[in-house]
Design a protein that fits this description.
The chain is of the alpha/beta class. It contains three helices and six strands, in the order βββαβαβαβ. A six-stranded mixed sheet has the order 1-2-3-4-5-6, with helices on both faces.
Length: 124
């Protein structure tokens, strides 16, 4: 499964870049760039949810290129975490940007959403 959603030139601000790359049969790297907010978080949710529905699957979410995260984006991450917990899948954040780390720490979400500096550092 490879998805590459690049924003149209006139919709750049409201459409995040999302790319899904399988690392193995049960491990995927999802890269997100841009804003994760009221206008864009649903696209990330639509990308993550199918990947998290199978027990034993790992989804590594690279947030190094996320420039803005609001409460809707944060809710998307928490919902993905809850789905993973319910289905037996795993979700790990990879190299969250400074803005994302700040929002996670501010809300306490960093206590449940574990992050790692690289995909290789995340447990299987």
């Amino acid at each position: 499964m490879s998805t590459d959603q690049t924003p149209a030139p006139d919709d750049h601000h409201h459409t995040p870049y999302l790319h899904v790359r399988p690392l193995s049969a049960d491990r995927h790297l999802v890269t997100a760039r841009g804003d994760l907010d009221l206008h864009t978080a649903h696209r990330l949710a639509d990308t993550l949810q199918p990947l998290l529905l199978t027990s034993g699957h790992s989804v590594l979410l690279d947030l190094s290129g996320v420039t803005f995260l609001d409460s809707t984006g944060l809710t998307c991450l928490i919902t993905a975490y809850r789905t993973a917990r319910t289905t037996g899948a795993r979700l790990a954040l990879i190299a969250p940007s400074e803005r994302v780390r700040h929002m996670l720490a501010l809300t306490g979400a960093d206590q449940v959403l574990h992050s790692y500096p690289t995909p290789d550092a995340a447990p299987d």
